[in-house]
What we know:
Distance between the termini of chain A: 36 Å
Order of helices and strands of chain B: EEEEEEEEEEE
Strand content of chain A: over 45%
Helix content of chain A: under 10%
Oligomer: heterodimer
Amino acid sequence: KNEVEQSPQNLTAQEGEFITINCSYSVGISALHWLQQHPGGGIVSLFMLSSGKKKHGRLIATINIQEKHSSLHITASHPRDSAVYICAVTPTMEYGNKLVFGAGTILRVKS
Amino acid sequence: NAGVTQTPKFQVLKTGQSMTLQCAQDMNHEYMSWYRQDPGMGLRLIHYSVGAGITDQGEVPNGYNVSRSTTEDFPLRLLSAAPSQTSVYFCASSRATGRNYGYTFGSGTRLTVV
């Protein structure tokens, strides 16, 4: 079993829809990261969370440490949101600030 | 602009050739790391460094060497390229180790070994 599981693997939405991507993890963590990767592009860090909720524009990330679960929400989705969204965690016992990655969620937003 | 710079962006190698992927950051970050990204496998850690002169192996280190002679640079060397090393490679840095600092990623190097 992977230490970080994301769902869904693939998601297609219509422009304007509210989107949720989920991330569950099985290890104790000091932080959880949401990353975005556009097709053929680099990786951009969207959020780093250790508790609660963060918001940036139309993106909202939440984390429940007790349930070992995080969600990334996109409000009023747009075709430019089409990308791979990757959840990654920093386990508490790991040395060196190493990240453990989920497999990613491929999001396609149609106009 | 401050950030992580990777070169080259694209490279084709023949089996057995060697090459170095360059990674440089100008943010005075202590922690630097190399990942490879393969379809269906996600990102996997190759090597990492917690400071100048200190490196260690990650999940998939075989066939790769690294060194960290300065804080800014963390090159990844392929000793004898194999088709299994065809992948997209990302370098990333973070301000410090063992703390909750965010990561900055490079734009990636797409490597094909024929």
